[in-house]
Amino acid sequence: MASVKEEREARAEAVRHIEREKPALEFGNAWEYSPAPESRDHVRLQDRYGLFIGGKFVAPKSKKYFATINPATEEKLADVAEAGAADVDAAVRAAEEAYRKRWSKLKPADRGKYVYRIARILQEKSRELAVIETMDGGKPIKESRDVDVPLVVAHFFYHAGWADKLEYAFPRHAVSPIGVCGQIIPWNFPLLMAAWKIAPAIACGNTVVLKPAETTPLTAMALAKVCEEADLPPGVVNILPGAGETGAAIVNHPRVKKIAFTGSTEVGKIIQRATAGTGKRLTLELGGKAANVIFEDAPIDQAVEGIINGIYFNQGHVCCAGSRLLVQESIADTVLQKLSDRIATLRMGDPLDKNTDVGAINSKMQLDKIRELVACGVEEGAELHQSACAIPSKGYWFPPSFFTGVAQSHRIAREEIFGPVLTVMTFRTPDEAVEKANNIPYGLSAGVWTDKGSKIFQITSKMRAGVVWANTFNKFDPASPFGGYKESGFGREGGVHGLRAYVELS
Amino acid sequence: MTELEVKKTYKLYVGGEFVRTESGRYDPVPDAKGRLLANVSRGSRKDLREAVRKARAAQSGWAGRSAYLKGQILYRMAEMLEGRAESFEELLRETRERTPAAARSEVRATIDRLVYYAGWSDKYVALLGTVNPVASSYFDFSVPEPTGVVGIVAPETPDLLGLVSHLAPVIVSGNAAVVLPSEKYPLASLELAEILATSDLPAGVANLISGRKDELVPHLARHMDVNAIADAGGNKAFSKSIAEDGAVNVKRVKRYAIADYFAEDAQGLDFIEAFTETKTTWHPIGV
Amino acid sequence: MSSLPRPFDTSRIPRVDAVGIDERAGALAKRSIKKSAKIAGIKLAISMLDLTTLEGKDSEGKVRQLCQKAMRPLPGDPSVPHVAAICVYPNLVAVAKDALAGSGVKVASVASGFPAGLVPLTAKLDDTRLAVESGADEIDMVIDRGAFLSGDYERVASEILAIKDACRDARLKVILETGELETYDNVRKASRLAMTYGADFIKTSTGKITPAATPGVVLVMLEAIRDFYFETGRRIGMKPAGGIKTSKRALHLLVLVKETLGDAWLTPDLFRIGASTVTNDLLMQLAKEATGRYQSEDYFTKD
Questions:
Q1: Using an 8 Å Cβ cutoff, are A259 and A251 in contact?
Q2: How far apart are CA A296 and CA C209, in angstroms?
Q3: Which residues of C touch A297 (CB under 8 A)?
Q4: Do C262 and A25 count as a contact with CB atoms less than 8 A apart?
Q5: C17–B138: do the CB atoms touch at under 8 Å?
Q6: Is there a contact between B287 and C18 if contact means CB atoms under 8 Å apart?
Q7: Dist CA B87 CA B69 (whole Å)
């Protein structure tokens, strides 16, 4: 009779045997793609950019400039003026004058035609804008080329058409513009966020003072040039690069009538407090920690694509990223297997390479934050899985990663990482999935995957989130309202609902 | 049989029950001539906390009821109020020294307001919702959903009409409400709780905490589980602090300064829309 | 009672979302294949070609000419490999076998009442046996789409089993004719059915019906192969066929394979491209990479 020990060894050997035989895919270099960098020849960057105030590029009264760098190479791309309080004041006054004297007096149809003009010029410059976006922000060229810039153009086209039809959007109301709008945007979709803000604002008859993020000001400056080229009346659009202090000066300026902010929940709350009792209108598009829920009856291979697109799109620098994967226990092993295989095919590297799937982390600061939270996840006992992709020696990089063995209480499952890091949790029943998905202070977006129609309507309606993607993820369109529940902010951008933020009704 | 009147005790209305404040405190409510009409519970922050808890527990179930049923329930409230119109008129006459005509007019207007919002229950979604023509192969639509738990700081006057003007549009869309009724004239509001309790409105959907606003408002505004506040209290200092405190959890704070609650524009779709969230859903189109 | 050794279990076949699959296939179509990757890719694609002639007017002479092209696609350049196989009707298998003797190029034959498959099983088996006895290394059979679409999986499965048996040592490619199955769910189900009952390869189309090897269909079939591999450990081959006329399409197919199934499938043993006219475009692209000049068809033989 075999001893217990022998039996155990035999069993272990059997397991090892099975593991050796276990089918596995190999994503190696049997046939490797050659480098395919997008050409930079047609892109002319200035050494130095001023502020765009009253239709002119001017030196900052602050006399301060900051360097914007390419996060993939750490090379300096240009020096950019940093707007101080006096510059903000000058811009607000220019915007106010433009509002009073020109923009609010223009026929709505003509206002629309200016916005159409901007759309067309942007379309012509698509390639140049995509390259600048990728150089300044680190996102893959295929995304800036196929997602960001086309959506930018679409946003201007869409809103241009609203300019002379606003009374149809608000029946039984007299519609008028608000005045000067202060707009503060983040670094994850620099030009797209500028479009989301500027297009509806000016189409509705407002003028704007927009602050791009300090790590990604270049496409906003290119947009300023486009406004110039479109002969947009001076002062209708003013662009002031800067950091937090510039933003605060805009928020607190007494002549700004409306603030639109996209960024972190932390800063959003500060702005909400700051505007309290001032009569300023406010819309906030803040953080998120979206659940992406995969049921056992999902179209699994497309769901895996949805997971990938949900969390690794734009290096996970997406407020609506599907950063919490909730997968039904019965298919968890299959999904994780497929996810691992899929991650092995993600190509991280030169963002300008047309075959790059995952680009550079936007800044050193963001990289540090991601690293800190990932270290915390490891410390909390979750198991880290990472793509084995090579990491370039220069620049800021973080490989596509996911955590298993995550508990709902882990920091990585509750805090917005804003990087290519997914947490994986399982559930057993639809009620449990909904409960876990909603058990977070955020409510920006959610994903639901099932091939069963009736289930889709039930589950999507129970998600406390402003955008719910069923059997897809991270889709955007100017006709489709976007915005959050709960601590993810209020107000919508896009669609009929998005206009509400930029009109006064009586 | 004796002639001696049985005096009414006015309690808080929390989770469908009439409860005394846990604090054991009360405030006397005088009539217009200064005579004691009744004592009302002076609700505490703990009562408020309990009300929010009940409201949260009730909200999703209420939101899940059909629009038709919600309309029926609001209409039922109007019916109940009609049946007790005279006693409400009497309360308004006694507490605010309204003329019989004015008291009658306010009660009539309150009934009308309930009927008005009852009729909205199965219509506002069609008007606030959209199908969005996106440029890819997806069906994309937006619908209004209730914001969640809404705090209502009711106006001091008109206490009855004012409260209903804010409560009805908040609950018709499936929100649950925690109401701070008029501090000076709470009796008609607390009387209204009896209507709420007997009109098939699920317990916890509407909760009334009488008491002192300077005590209660900050706790309401800072409560992390209150999603929005309808601030109709008409107090500038409160309004600023509500707006500031509301930032703790990104509350939707809607301030109302309504000069005439009897007017046409003291009601409307906008009152419903203010406490809804737009949800956009995408789904592929393909075989 | 079922005549199958095991009933066809459809319960574990995942559903396919059409928009999702098209988006993924579309995204992979945007891979930029340049320079050395392009040269290597073109040569790899040539080595995977099932050079096909399946016309009523096919003759011995035509087949012999095609065999020459198959063995030496670009005379004078030994770095260009021979194609994987010649694909002909059963009557011409012997001719091809003779013409290709010793070259390493396989002979594939369509059988089983190609292209409709609507002949009795006995005829399909005779067809197959004739091809095999004439020396075919590979048999490309069609499934009975009518039976499949009416839900008679058992009939489809038992025909595959029978033909597989008749193939003896020849490898069996099962043509689904995806253009007639219409939905991705059907493609996935038919792929699974074919793999379960004996296919060594699954193949999209006869070439007689459009749409044929669309990127979405190819991706669905590759994913079906992947699942089958994980379940059984068996590597099934894939053959898109029909409408593949440009190098770009051929390279895109390689991209789909590379990023779905990985390195193991990037070989003629497991991946074939069924085509009749793509060869010259591949050769022209190769010449363009070598010389930097855009090419003229006059410099490449039309066989």
A1: yes
A2: 35
A3: 15
A4: yes
A5: no
A6: yes
A7: 27
Q: Decide if A227 contacts A266 (C-beta within 8 A).
A: no
In sign, the C-alpha dihedral spanning B179, B182, B188, B191 is positive
Neighbours of chain B (3+ CB pairs under 8 A): A, C
Query: Could you tell me whether strands B130-131 and B138-146 are parallel, antiparallel, or unpaired per DSSP bridges?
Result: antiparallel
Q: Which residues of C touch A333 (CB under 8 A)?
A: none
Q: Min CA distance, B137 vs chain C (Å)?
A: 7
Q: Please, what's the b/e burial string for A312-350 (b: 16 or more CB within 10 A of its CB; e: otherwise)? A: bbbbbbbbbbbbbbbbbeebbebbbbbbebbbbbbbbbb
C302 pLDDT above the threshold of 80: yes
Tokens 């929940």 belong to A265
CA B276/CA B270 separation, integer angstroms: 10
**ipTM confidence:** 0.95
What distance in Å separates residue B136's CA from the closest CA in chain C?
9
Question: Exactly one of A82, A133, A143, A285 is catalytic; which is it?
Answer: A285
Those of residues 248-267 in C touching chain B at CB distance below 8 A are none
Q: CA nearest A94: which of A107, A82, A83, A110?
A: A83
Please say if A416 is a catalytic residue: no
Q: Active-site residue among C69, C97, C164, C239?
A: C239
Give me the count of residues in chain B: 287
| Average pLDDT estimate for C128-140 | 97
DSSP secondary structure letter of residue A147 = I
Q: Report chain B residues touching chain A, CB-CB < 8 A.
A: 60, 130, 132-136, 138, 140, 142, 145, 147-148, 227, 239-240, 243-244, 246-250, 252-253, 270, 277-284
Q: What is the pLDDT of residue A16?
A: 59
pLDDT tier for residue C1 given thresholds of 50, 70 and 90:
very low
Which amino acid type is present at position C32? S
Test the C interface: residue of B137, B283, B287 with most C CBs within 10 Å: B287
Cis ω on the peptide bond leading into residue A35 (within 30° of 0)?
no
Neighbours of chain A (3+ CB pairs under 8 A): B, C
C24 to chain A, any CB pair closer than 8 A? The answer is yes
Phi-psi domain of A68 (left: phi exceeds 0; alpha: psi -120 through 50; beta: other)? beta
What token pair was written down for A330? 């019965």
- B228-231, strands of its sheet edge to edge: B17-19, B12-14, B206-208, B176-180, B149-153, B228-231, B252-255
Rounded to an integer, what distance in angstroms lies between the CA atom of residue A64 and that of residue A82?
5
Residue A18 confidence (pLDDT) = 54
Of C28, B282, C19, residue with least CA distance to A474: B282
Q: Per the CB < 8 Å rule, is A23 touching C262?
A: no
Alpha-carbon distance of C2 to B49, in angstroms, equals 66
Q: What is the mean pLDDT of chain A?
A: 96
Q: How far apart are CA C257 and CA C266, in angstroms?
A: 7
Share of chain B above pLDDT 90, in %: 95
Touching partners of C (3+ C-beta pairs < 8 Å): A, B
Nearest residue of chain A to residue C40 (CA atoms): A31
Grade residue A11 by pLDDT with cuts at 50, 70 and 90: low
Strand partners, A384: A403
| Catalytic position from the list C127, C140, C200, C281 | C140
Residue A61: which of A77, A73, A76, A50 has the closest Cα?
A50
- Whether C262 sits inside 8 A of A26 (CB atoms) is yes
Whether the Cβ atoms of residue C14 and residue C188 lie closer than 8 Å to each other: yes
Q: Is A285 a catalytic residue?
A: yes
Q: Model confidence over A133-181: pLDDT tens digits?
A: 999 999 999 999 999 999 999 999 999 999 999 999 999 999 999 999 9
Paired residues of A282 in beta bridges? A259
